[in-house]
Amino acid sequence: MKLWGGRFTKEENALVHNFNASISFDQKFYKQDIRGSIAHVTMLASSGILTDEEKDVIVAGLNGILNDIESGALEIDQTAEDIHSFVEQTLIERVGDTGKKLHTGRSRNDQVALDMKLYTRDEVTETDELLKTLLSEILKIMKENTTTYMPGFTHLQKAQPITLAHHFGAYFEMFKRDRERLADIYKRMNYCPLGSGALAGTTYPLDRELTASLLDFAGPTLNSMDSVSDRDYLIEFLSALSTIMMHLSRFSEEIIVWNTNEYRFVEIDDSYSTGSSIMPQKKNPDIAELVRGKTGRVYGALMSLLTTMKGLPLAYNKDMQEDKELTFDAIDTVKGCIGLFTGMIATMKFNNEVMESSAKNGFTNATDAADYLVNHGVPFRDAHGIVGQLVLFCIDKGIALDDMTLEEFKAISPVFEEDIYDAISLKTCVEKRLTIGAPGKEAMDKVIAINEAYLNA
Ligand code: ARG
């Protein structure tokens, strides 16, 4: 049965019913729908619009429906139009005419705006908790690897030596910002649309402050037209989710590269790898690849909703029903990805010697050789040129800077002395970098302490 049959003389076409119905996906927020209805009737009674007896009958009925859905005793009718109709009709069947008063002073427009907000608000919190667990795992790896030397790259070419802690620390900052974005979104979205009616408020003396506080909102929204047609918070959330995926995807790409036979910096655990049906030797980084791949899907949700919203006149339009499936899919995708990614890095093995010898082999200490000359009075531009000649010499001989004899150094520049070897040793190159944010252990330890305090706050 429809909630709105009165004005109609013909039955709805079956295809129209299916095209219009949203029960298959909005049943996901039956809990939020019932919670919102309980707050609504509680407020109606407190405002004198319903009697306390009527409220008690309705609240008991709604709680019964909630329990029965959870226990499996009540199945959500898949032929209903939407979750709002299903709950209201079941209530009327169960408690009789009093149930018909539930929808007093309410429209499905403010009801769905509320349900979606309640659902999303919890998901913002859950996403944040998953990010926090990921950050703890990253920090643990950082603490264990403040002197695990590896090459840092630019253009995917070896550039300067860093540490594994420093590399992971970069992602720590990214996911930390992602959490800040979520906190911001939560704060901005946390206003209650219920009581806005279809678009123009209602003539009942609703106490919107009360409904808002019963549902743990900071307060009621301030414009009823905006309340029923605002989907900004979903766009912001999808944007934050897209950024999280972008970060996970970059990290995944690095792990895929590091896990290759050519790099061998890491080895993904068997439990997070998959095999090939034809090539017996293969162990593939499918989880990292799927995380990278699913990023497109989450971006797609963001683009989709932005496009859905761009031409909509105020206030509610049915187009907005399209906000749900893509948002649910994006949320489930991101939560799954964060969880799996965390498990993957927690079980990953780091080949410290391979990383260290890779750092030694790519002239990653060339900048430090130039800095040595500068410290001995050579202008930087000249020093750059001299070290360029050293590198050419080494490439020709197939050796590293460290392998050159002092005579060979001196033949290119007489400024070099015995202490050049210490100045360009891998350890010195990293440990001399001590400004905040740099990879030297002393600087890194300070950042780790700051981030540890942040996680414990
Ligand atoms: N299923 C609808 C949605 O998701 C609920 C609101 C229906 N409102 C209406 N005026 N038809 O948007």
Mind explaining what this structure looks like?
With 457 residues, the chain is mostly helical. The two termini are 52 Å apart. Helix 4 crosses helix 5, helix 6 (108-144) packs antiparallel against helix 19 and helix 10 runs antiparallel to helix 11 (286-309). It has a two-stranded antiparallel ribbon. Strands 3-4 form a two-stranded parallel ribbon. The protein has a two-stranded antiparallel sheet with strand order 5-6. The longest helix is centred in the N-terminal third of the chain and has 37 residues, at 108-144. Helices cover 62% and strands 5% of the residues. It is built from 19 helices and six strands. Bound molecules: arginine. Arginine binds next to helix 6.
Structural class: mainly alpha
Average predicted confidence as pLDDT = 97
Lateral arrangement of strands in the main beta sheet: 1-2
What is the helical fraction, as a range of percent?
55-70%
SSE sequence, one letter per element: HHHHHHEEHEHEHHEHHEHHHHHHH
Let me know the largest β-sheet.
2 strands, antiparallel
Query: Per DSSP, what share of the residues sits in E-state strands of 2 or more residues?
Result: under 5%
End-to-end Cα distance, whole Å, is 52 Å
Principal-axis shape: elongated
Low-confidence stretches: none
Number of helices: 19
**What's the oligomerization state?**
single chain
Radius of gyration equals 31 Å
Number of beta-strand segments: 6
What ligand species are in this complex? arginine
